[in-house]
């Protein structure tokens, strides 16, 4: 299933970033497979007596090895579509150069010129695919024009039809490559699709809870007056019964039970009304209040949550996606903290920042470039050092939701534990501070 189809089918948030075009790790792996195949083909060609400029061929293969070794220093980082297109263009040029040195279109392995454009067709936007398609046409033409003939030394190996055998191997290798690559892409797209579906379900659940909170607040407000009336009337009935029927203790107990039930309803609505503050009509709030709302479900879970607002407390959009994303980050910090989680805010002329840190073991350095990918188990628990058995969806969902609001996330380790910094451009999250309306003006007749 192409990645473009998945991105159109699952619309998480307006303005969300597009899916990662292709993993750098995948490009490196495919290039190592190609290098191994090229070296094997060179060895087989020499064995059957093929004549070609060996030094030049090994030099071209050495360029691909050098590129892969350089990229392997940071294999887990995310790459944009432009960089992926340039790397596929390099692979295309490298294969075309090898073909030009070994017979060009007469070489049975000319079929492999289709590999880079196939990768581009499944993973890159249309404009990059078009560019690689044009480059493929140009490389095929140049390889045919500047081709050096491929000849064979007689008597080296008794093959009556060496090119026919080469074509057989090329078709088999090509079929294996295209099948394996299609399978790999399908597995990556399936994992991303599942993770995006989980994020979408989590956001829908958050929005339903907020709707429910508004209904609860309205019910608490509307039922307050009739409950107060019931309590007042029951108190008057108790006084009248004690005077008119002092010997009817059963009636006095019934009235007392009525008053207790009214008090219980009042207490229940009061507690539910606390959750009802999440009214959808509250579209903006101070950043410190948004963070307090995000941290509320995780207070009392063991680690202490310290909120440290900056000198300025900006008014920001109170968005369910932002609250849920911050809540997931705070939950992850609480899960791994030893004693304390610190949430700090700051702002400057351009950006608003939130830094969430804990005093746990931190992120493993080897996994830092992959933090935020779906189905990634991140780090050991603080208290016992055992692996945390989770799917890694919490950080993926948080990253998807917060990036959908325009934020940039940076995962790292501080002096004591893990740190996550969320940065928004002020124009994307800050909103107008309406403030209080003030006293009503005095009307004089």
TrEMBL record:
It comes from the Bacteria. GO terms for molecular function: kinase activity. It is found in: Cell membrane. It is an enzyme of class 2 (transferase). Its main location: membrane. Keywords: ATP-binding, Cell membrane, Kinase, Membrane, Nucleotide-binding, Phosphoprotein, Transferase, Transmembrane, Transmembrane helix. Its EC number is 2.7.13.3. The chain crosses the membrane at residues 29-48, 54-73, 129-147, 167-186. It is a multi-pass membrane protein. CDD domains: HisKA. Residues 218-428 form the Histidine kinase domain. It catalyses: ATP + protein L-histidine = ADP + protein N-phospho-L-histidine. InterPro entries: 2C_sensor_his_kinase, HATPase_C_sf, HATPase_dom, His_kinase_dom, HisK_dim/P_dom, HisK_dim/P_sf, RegB, Sig_transdc_His_kin-like_C. Pfam families: HATPase_c, HisKA. PANTHER family: SENSOR PROTEIN CREC, SENSOR PROTEIN RSTB. This is histidine kinase. It comes from Paracoccus simplex.
